[in-house]
Amino acid sequence: MAALPVHVSANVWVGIRDDGVVEPYSMAISRKGRHEVEWFCTNQNQTATVTFIDTPFQDKEFHVPAGGSACSGPVLDTGQLKPEYTYKIRLGSSTSPQSQPQPDAGIIIIRP
Q: What domain range includes position 78?
């Protein structure tokens, strides 16, 4: 019986602070390594939305629940990728509308 292919991925964790700043600001991820970015809110009462103009992932927007996390999925296998992508963070909560997005909240650098 033939073995099934195994798809292993590695998550790169990015914390979203109360002021919308992300740590780390810049990170390198690998397409071949099937890396994924996982954003998490450190505040139990604050949500965040991660938005890309151009994205290396399936989706352009990721909703991070208060005190929780959201994962990007792996870098797309198809098409030509740019060397880096920027994204913005918009903060919110269950009782208030989301804030203005933080300019250039973070940078993702794509490696082969």
A: 10-111
Quote the pLDDT of residue 21: 87
From the CB of residue 108, how many other CB atoms can be counted at a distance below 10 Å? 23
98 within some domain:
yes
Coil, helix or strand at residue 31: coil
Number of domains in the chain: 1
CB-based burial label for 3 (10 Å; 0-12, 13-18, 19+): exposed
Residues near 58 by beta carbon (within 8 Å), at least 6 away in sequence: 73, 76
Instruction: Encode burial over 18-54: b for 16+ CB neighbours within 10 A, e otherwise.
Output: eebebeeeeeebbeeeebbbebbbeeeebbbbbbbee
Report residue 76 as tokens.
């797309």
**pLDDT, tens digit, 9 for 90 and up, residues 42-86:** 889 989 999 998 999 999 999 999 999 999 999 988 778 888 999
Judge contact between 51 and 88, C-beta under 8 A.
yes
